[in-house]
Amino acid sequence: MDDWDENDFRWFVGNLGREATSEILANIFRQRYSSFTKARVVENKVWKGSAGYGFVSFSDPLEGIKAMKEMNGNKQM
Prior knowledge:
Blueprint: E1 9-14, H1 22-32, E2 36-44, E3 49-58, H2 61-71
Antiparallel strand pairs: 1-3, 2-3
């Protein structure tokens, strides 16, 4: 995550399925939040799939907080 903008508001996303990818996670947030900037799903090196968690970032902290509240418990991921 060294290549992420240090001024972005970042948060942890957990409970992702093994099929989750950074692209899928980015598409979910990009569709809903204009200040979304990046997503990364951490991969498990043993089974070559999602480790079950990742990170997302937003340029606007208020929209990041809104996204966190709205997406908490969302079953799309």
